[in-house]
Amino acid sequence: MTLSSLLALLLLAAQAPAAHAPATPLERFFVGRTEGAGTVHVLLSGRHAVRHRSVGRIDRAGALTMDELLEEEGKAPRRRIWRLVRAGGDRIGGTISDARGPVTGSVSGNVLRLRYRLAEGPSVEQRITLQAGGRSAANHMIFRRFGIVVARVEQVIRRVE
């Protein structure tokens, strides 16, 4: 259930190559291979491990695309595809293969914030913070149903290459 990879893709969001400023360190973090590991805390169910591996790139249209393999304890592995683009200024827009509707968000300094609704129901608020040195990022996610927090994810994402 960790959307670390998804967050990473959103951070990489960029406009068309000819029209955008050079990618920030936060955006460059998600280009190439990243891996994440952490814990999912589920209301009334306890906690369990979550891991992901992803590969990100900037496509011809200037969007960050990321292919993520998500492995959550007790569930079958699943593949997710992210596509994020700069929507002007610090705004981010895009899609995630298991989301219902668009992904929206913003980049401010070393922090990427995303909002979306998963196809399975809960709304997600995600915050990815690039750490000093640029080799890792903290991923914090909150999942809500009917306004009630039903799960949280705490994860560390690391660049592999």
Counting helices, strands and paired strands, the structural category is mainly beta
Strand order of the largest sheet: 1-2-3-4-5-6-7-8-9-10
Helix content: under 10%
Second CATH tier, the architecture? Beta Barrel
Please identify which CATH superfamily we are dealing with. Calycin beta-barrel core domain
Contiguous runs where pLDDT drops below 50 for at least 5 residues: 1-22
Helix/strand layout:
Blueprint: H1 4-12, H2 25-28, E1 32-42, E2 46-58, E3 64-72, E4 78-86, E5 91-96, E6 103-108, E7 111-117, E8 123-130, E9 136-145, E10 148-159
Antiparallel strand pairs: 1-2, 1-10, 2-3, 3-4, 4-5, 5-6, 6-7, 7-8, 8-9, 9-10
Key attributes of the depicted protein:
disordered N terminus; globular; Lipocalin; mainly beta; 161 residues; 57% strand
Write up this protein.
The chain has 161 residues and is mainly beta. The protein has one domain (4-159): Lipocalin, CATH 2.40.128. 8% of the residues lie in helices and 57% in strands. The protein is built from 2 helices and 10 strands. The chain has helices at 4-12, 25-28, and strands at 32-42, 46-58, 64-72, 78-86, 91-96, 103-108, 111-117, 123-130, 136-145, 148-159. The chain has a 10-stranded antiparallel β-barrel with strand order 1-2-3-4-5-6-7-8-9-10. The chain is globular, with a radius of gyration of 14 Å. The two termini are 24 Å apart. The relative contact order is 0.24. The model is unreliable at 1-22 (pLDDT under 50).
